[in-house]
Design goal:
Elements lengths: L13 E13 L10 E16 L4 E5 L13 H10 L6 E7 L9 H17 L5 H16 L5 H8 L2 E9 L2 E9 L5 E8 L5 H14 L1 H24 L2 H17 L5 H12 L4 E5 L6 E7 L2 H13 L3 E7 L2
Parallel strand pairs: 3-4
Antiparallel strand pairs: 1-2, 2-4, 2-5, 5-6, 7-9, 7-10, 8-9
Helix pairs in contact: 1-2, 1-3, 2-3, 2-4, 3-4, 5-6, 6-7, 8-9
This protein binds (3R)-3-hydroxy-3-methyl-5-(phosphonooxy)pentanoic acid.
C-alpha cells in the first residue's frame, strides 16, 4: 500500500502581515517592576509585505505621518532580520508605518508581530498567542533592551488589554487579558517629536532607584495603585475617576524625569480644552506620545483641534464597548 504523501507546500509570491500600534493608558515603567498596566491597540499600525529576494528591507511612513528620525534609525532592518532569522537573506520586506515611530506608540512591537505573522503565513504555520508573544518579545528586546512584554502583548491581543509581569524564582510569568469596557470611550492621541529610545529611558529610571531606593519603590507602588484604580474606573465607565487617575499617573511619571517641557505643555493644553485627564504615554523623555481622555466624541474633536493648533499631530481613537 502506498503511503499518503504530504503535498509539498508551494510558497505564495507575496505574503502580507499587519499589527496595530498601541497606547499605554496606565503602568508604563512600573510594569518593568511587576506592577499592572492597561493598554489599547490603535486603529493604525504597521503593514509589511514579504517576497522572495535578497534580504532588502525598505521602510516608509504612511501619508501624513511625520518622523525626522526614521531615516537615521537602523531599527526596522534589525528587527526584521531578527524576526526572519535564517530566512532573512532570501526575502525582501517592504514596511509601511502608519504611526510615528520612536514616540511610544508601539511601532517596534507592531513591526515584530507583522513580520512574524507574514513569516508564519509563508511557512504555513499557526502558533498559539503565548508562543507568538515570546517570539515577539525576543525580537523587540533589540529596541527595548529588556522589554516587559507589554507592547507586544497589546499589539498581539488587540482591543483593551490588561497586563502584568511577575517574576517568580527567576522566571517571568506574564498575565495578559483582553477586557471589554462597559461603555465606549474616546482617546485623543497626540505626538510631539520622539522619546529618543526606550532602552535609555528604562536606564534613566533605574538610576533613580539607585539614588533613592525607598522613595523609588513608593513611587512605583503608587503607579501600580493608580493603574489598578484607573483601569477599574475606565472599564466600568467611570470616566471622571479614570481621568483623575491619568493626571495622577502623569505627575508621578513627570517626577521620574519622563516628561519633557513640550509634552507638559500639550497635556495641560488638552486638559484646558475639555479633557477629563491627560498624560504622557510610553517610555517618555523630551518628546513622544501623550493622550487625553474625552467625555464624549464631540469633546474629543475639540481636544484634537486644540492639540493640532499647538503644533502636534493628533487623532481620535475609540475603544468600543
Ligand atoms: O517603548 P515604549 O515607549 O512603547 O514604552 C514601553 C513601556 C515601558 O514600560 C517603558 C517598557 C516596557 O518594556 O514595558
Amino acid at each position: 500500500m502506498a503511503l499518503a504523501q504530504r503535498k509539498p507546500h508551494a510558497e505564495p509570491a507575496v505574503v502580507l502581515g499587519a499589527a496595530p500600534g498601541k497606547v499605554i493608558l496606565f503602568g508604563e515603567h512600573a510594569v518593568v517592576y511587576g506592577q499592572p498596566a492597561l493598554g489599547v491597540a490603535l486603529g493604525r499600525g504597521v503593514r509589511v509585505s514579504v517576497r522572495k529576494g535578497s534580504g532588502k528591507v525598505e521602510a516608509k511612513l504612511a501619508e501624513g505621518v511625520r518622523s525626522p528620525e526614521l531615516a537615521a534609525s537602523a531599527t526596522p532592518e534589525k528587527l526584521v532580520k531578527a524576526a526572519l532569522g535564517a530566512r532573512a537573506e532570501e526575502l525582501d520586506v517592504e514596511i509601511e508605518i502608519e504611526v510615528p515611530p520612536l514616540a511610544g506608540l508601539g511601532t517596534s512591537a507592531a513591526l515584530a508581530i507583522a513580520v512574524l505573522r507574514a513569516k508564519d503565513a509563508l511557512d504555513d504555520v499557526t502558533e498559539p498567542a503565548e508562543v507568538m508573544l515570546d517570539r515577539a518579545m525576543e525580537v523587540e528586546n533589540l529596541a527595548h533592551g529588556a522589554s516587559s512584554g507589554l507592547d507586544p502583548a497589546i499589539c498581539l491581543y488587540g482591543g483593551v488589554v490588561e497586563f502584568q509581569r511577575r517574576e517568580t524564582k527567576g522566571k517571568n510569568k506574564l498575565q495578559v487579558r483582553r477586557v471589554t469596557p462597559a461603555l465606549s470611550f474616546h482617546l485623543v492621541i497626540g505626538v510631539h517629536g520622539t522619546h529618543g529610545g526606550t532602552k535609555d529611558r528604562i536606564r534613566g529610571v533605574a538610576m533613580v532607584r539607585e539614588q533613592m531606593p525607598q522613595a523609588f519603590d513608593a513611587s512605583i507602588k503608587a503607579l501600580g495603585q493608580i493603574s489598578r484604580a484607573g483601569s477599574k474606573a475606565l472599564i466600568k465607565g467611570d470616566l471622571e475617576v479614570a481621568g483623575r487617575a491619568l493626571d495622577l499617573a502623569h505627575g508621578v511619571l513627570s517626577g521620574l524625569g519622563l516628561v519633557g517641557d513640550a509634552i507638559e505643555h500639550h497635556v495641560r493644553n488638552a486638559r484646558r480644552a475639555g479633557a477629563l485627564g491627560a498624560k504622557m504615554s510610553g517610555a517618555g523623555g523630551s518628546g513622544g506620545a501623550f493622550f487625553a481622555l474625552a467625555p464624549d466624541f464631540q469633546a474629543a474633536q475639540r481636544v484634537k483641534e486644540a492639540i493640532e493648533a499647538a503644533g502636534a499631530m493628533s487623532w481620535v481613537e475609540t475603544a468600543a464597548e
